[in-house]
């Protein structure tokens, strides 16, 4: 029996979850689905400039797992950009961080000090 998959820790869901070409004239050429955990690795490594080891610690997974997720996410970004497809961010095996403890709330955490996020998600 395989080991259960570990849920990846994600600081926040993306504000926008659908991206695509502006000149599509309402026609959708195709879609690329990126999971929320793939989005989080792109955010942490490329935007926040974390090393893969730091990203792994933040997401509570192994560095080799981060490397695989990151490679897949970059392939999906390239597919959407090069082929003019719509990129949709949804699904995945993740859990939202609380913003405190567990390595959350520090550098790179979108839940701490993000007024837009706090006002949008008061009911959580």
List the SSEs and their pairings.
Elements: E1 8-10, E2 18-19, E3 31-34, H1 36-47, H2 52-59, H3 63-83, E4 86-89, E5 94-96, H4 115-120
Parallel strand pairs: 1-5, 3-4
Antiparallel strand pairs: 2-4
Helix pairs in contact: 1-3, 2-3
Strand runs, count: 5
Low-confidence stretches: 113-124
How many H/I helices? 4
Strand residue percentage: 5-15%
Biggest β-sheet strands, sense, barrel: 3 strands, mixed
Instruction: Indicate the structural class.
Output: alpha/beta
Spell out the helices and strands N to C. Answer: EEEHHHEEH
Question: How far is the N terminus from the C terminus?
Answer: 35 Å
**Average pLDDT for all residues:** 82
- Give the fraction of residues assigned to helices: 25-40%
Strand order within the widest beta sheet: 2-4-3
How many independent structural domains?
1
The rough form would be described as: globular
Rg calc: 15 Å
Molecular structure report:
By secondary structure, the chain is an alpha/beta fold. It has one domain. Helices cover 38% and strands 13% of the residues. It has helices spanning 36-47, 52-59, 63-83, 115-120, and strands spanning 8-10, 18-19, 31-34, 86-89, 94-96. Strands 2-4-3 form a three-stranded mixed sheet. The protein has a two-stranded parallel sheet with strand order 1-5. Helix 1 (36-47) crosses helix 3 (63-83) and helix 2 packs across helix 3. The protein is globular, with a radius of gyration of 15 Å. The model is unreliable at 113-124 (pLDDT under 50).
Output the keywords.
globular, single chain, disordered C terminus, 124 residues, 5 strands, two-stranded parallel sheet, alpha/beta, 3-stranded mixed β-sheet
């Amino acid at each position: 029996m395989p080991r259960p998959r570990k849920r990846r820790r994600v600081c926040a869901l993306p504000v926008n979850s659908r991206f695509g070409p502006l000149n599509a004239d309402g026609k959708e050429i195709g879609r690329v689905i990126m999971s929320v955990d793939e989005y989080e690795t792109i955010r942490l490594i490329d935007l926040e400039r974390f090393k893969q080891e730091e990203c792994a610690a933040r997401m509570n997974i192994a560095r080799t797992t981060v490397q695989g997720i990151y490679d897949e996410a970059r392939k999906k970004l390239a597919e959407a950009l090069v082929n003019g497809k719509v990129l949709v961010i949804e699904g995945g095996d993740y859990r939202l961080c609380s913003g405190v403890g567990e390595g959350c709330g520090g550098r790179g955490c979108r839940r701490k000090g993000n007024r837009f996020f706090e006002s949008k998600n008061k009911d959580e």
